Amino acid sequence: MHGSLDFIRRLLDELTRSSGDIPESVAIAVCPTHLHLGHVQHLLAGSRIRLGAQDAHPAPEGAFTGAVAAAMLVEYGVHYVIVGHSERRHVFAESDALVAQKFAAVLNAGMTPVLCIGETLEQRQQDITEEVVLGQLDAVIDEVGSDALSGAIVAYEPVWAIGTGQTATPEQAQAVHRSIREHLHGQAAAIADHLPILYGGSVKADSAGALFSQADIDGGLVGGASLKADEFIAICKTAD
Predict the structure, then answer these.
(1) Which of 87, 119, 157, 231 is catalytic?
(2) Residues linked to residue 113 through DSSP beta bridges, in sequence order
(3) Which of 193, 194, 189, 125 is nearest to 160 (CA)?
(4) Separation of alpha carbons 114 and 104, rounded Å
(5) CA 198 from chain center: how many Å?
(6) What is the pLDDT of residue 91?
(7) Considering only CA atoms, which of 240, 164, 176 is closest in space to residue 208?
(8) What pTM, to 2 d.p., does this model score?
(9) Close Cβ partners of 204 (under 8 Å, ≥ 6 residues apart)
(10) Which run of H or of E encompasses 83?
(11) Which of 161, 234, 147, 144 is nearest to 199 (CA)?
(12) Cys bridge to 106: 81, 89, 199, 239, which one at CB 3.0-4.6 A?
């Protein structure tokens, strides 16, 4: 929940001007608030940067004041939709089942869901990281089937490393990413091998290289650093 019309215009002007310096192999997207989607859609016209949204309601329409349906996002040219972000789970108390329903709604609308999964500090200290993370993934598989992940992205975001300045070590992050891929491999090997799994958790330019060099880390879900054009561009260049 950041930004004004002027801030967004200045940020995207810098991003679009600098995007030519990023290898074509790197996919880039920005996910503004729902209120700013139309503004950002206009600013990104003709750019390689794709538009994403931060959330979607699972119902196609109805009396859900304040909510936004997936079909509405399609009309604004949205390509990616984040579902299950840690703040939606822990601040707004969204259950695994609700996240799975949102995932299905985004997929059915023809967009790419970005499924966020991750453990809290307490859960890591209890040594149940894998149980929590794979349980969140299985809730989606139970809803839509493992084959549906062929049209999705998974983002592992340890809750204890979001907005805290802490970052999981490359080895810690890789271990969880590998668990996710191996878990899915037992159900849909071809999908598991090609599923993009992003790391999200205080990703910065000085930590991105070591993270992205890990075998099962395919990119980043960038938070605060995405609000600084030079920092975000530096992260994108590292992702090649």
Answers:
(1) 157
(2) 81
(3) 125
(4) 11
(5) 7
(6) 95
(7) 240
(8) 0.96
(9) 167, 225, 231, 235
(10) strand 80-83
(11) 161
(12) 81
d(CA 34, CA 37): 5
User: How high is the pLDDT of residue 98?
Assistant: 98
Distance between CA atoms of 150 and 55, rounded to whole angstroms?
20
> What's the whole-number mean pLDDT along residues 208-231?
96
The question of whether 183 is a catalytic residue gets the answer: no
Which residue's structure tokens are 């707004």?
A: 92
Alpha-carbon dihedral 39, 40, 43, 46, rounded to 10 degrees: -130
Contacts of 192 (CB under 8 A, 6+ apart): 181, 182, 184, 185
Confidence of residue 240 (pLDDT cuts 50, 70, 90): confident
Tokens of 171: 């080895």
Residue 129: how many other CB atoms lie within 10 Å: 20
**Is 157 among the catalytic positions?**
yes
**Distance in angstroms (rounded) separating the CA atoms of residues 198 and 57:** 23
User: What is the C-alpha R_g of the chain?
Assistant: 17
Q: Are the C-beta atoms of 64 and 31 separated by less than 8 Å?
A: no
Q: What share of the chain in percent tops pLDDT 90?
A: 93
Whose CA is closest to 214, among 185, 186, 184, 172? 172
Instruction: Please pick, among 85, 87, 94, 119, the residue that the annotation labels catalytic.
Output: 85
Do the Cβ atoms of 116 and 157 come closer than 8 Å?
yes
Q: Quote the tokens at residue 135.
A: 């349980």
Q: What is the pLDDT of residues 158-203, one digit of tens each?
A: 998 887 777 789 999 999 999 999 999 989 999 999 999 999 988 9
- Separation between Cα atoms, residue 169 and residue 210, nearest integer Å: 9
Query: For residue 69, what are the β-bridge partners?
Result: 57
